[in-house]
Amino acid sequence: MTDGPGYYEHLDFNAPLSDWRANAMADRLAPASPTSLLDVGCGWGELLLRIAARVPGASALGVDTEERHLHRARAAARDRGLSDRVTFTNVAGDRVGDVIGGPADVVICIGSSHAFGDTVGEALAGLRRLVRPGGRLVLGDGTWEVRGPVRPELVWDDVVALPSVAELVDVAVAAGFRPLWTDTANEDELFAFESGYLADLEEWLMHHDDAEVRARADEHRTRWLHGYRNAFGFAYLTLGVPDHG
Fold first, then answer.
1. How many CA atoms within 13 Å lie on the side-chain side of 172?
2. What's phi and psi for 180, nearest 5 deg?
3. pLDDT digits over 84-135, tens only?
4. Count of CB atoms situated within 10 Å of the CB of 183
5. Rg (CA), the chain
6. Residue extents of the structural domains in the chain
7. pTM confidence score
8. InterPro entries given for it (predicted)?
9. Which long-range CB contacts under 8 A does 157-161 form with residues at least 24 apart?
10. What is the CATH number of domain 19-186+233-240?
């Protein structure tokens, strides 16, 4: 018997990302035949593993600070026969450069840009140093664009401060990237992500009268459905670093 709710057990990705979109992203990256892949804040490495499976000549490194995520990632790599060239390491974001030893052909950073700076511009400047000229950065980050009623008192301050999709792309261009592809999570992906996150708590509450867990679930659900649902979004940018100039 477990001593608490599950830990992201109902999510394939720790982001509002569907199977079809993840596969499309991986398919767009594979034709360039990258030989080195890096996922910063990889979680359990699902997107990294899908890309690695499409480029048999590539070595891949996923870094994160949560050992429970990394344990799941290593198990998935073994199950898919990828552990000989996909490695997962526990390391803080500001030490990534020391671990990889040089820029990578493809860098993934989804929901972890904060590890490189307090602003999107600072984060992109830090991430750009990890991508070789001619390489790609897959950036996934939250956005804020009001599309309906929003109750500000239910929204965290840092969420309200997020950029719009257009602002995020503009900052990327200013940081020296070329925007090769822009995706945004649709409503189904956002609902699936929030529901999957809450499912660990709600499944636990089906069998346990736990006031603390119930309060956590109720607060998060209220903030989502009555607070930020009509404004919070998530963008996926595939950004290129020019190999000239």
1. 28
2. -80, -30
3. 999 999 986 556 666 666 799 999 999 999 888 889 999 999 999 999 999 9
4. 19
5. 18
6. 19-186+233-240
7. 0.94
8. Methyltransf_12, SAM-dependent_MTases_sf
9. 159/228, 159/232
10. 3.40.50.150
Instruction: Report the pLDDT value the prediction gives residue 1, as an integer from 0 to 100.
Output: 44
Helix (H, G, I), strand (E, B) or coil at 244: coil
Alpha helices in 103-179 (DSSP H): 120-128, 157-160, 165-174
Q: Is residue 31 within 8 Å of 2, Cβ to Cβ? A: no
CA distance 79 to 96: 26
Entry field: residues in the chain: 245
Q: Which two tokens stand for residue 80?
A: 């898919």
Residue with tokens 């509450």: 205
Question: Who wins on pLDDT, 94 or 8?
Answer: 8
Residue pair 139/116 in contact (Cβ under 8 Å)? The answer is no
DSSP state string for 19-73 = HHHHHHHHHHHGGG--SEEEEET-TT-HHHHHHHHH-TT-EEEEEES-HHHHHHH
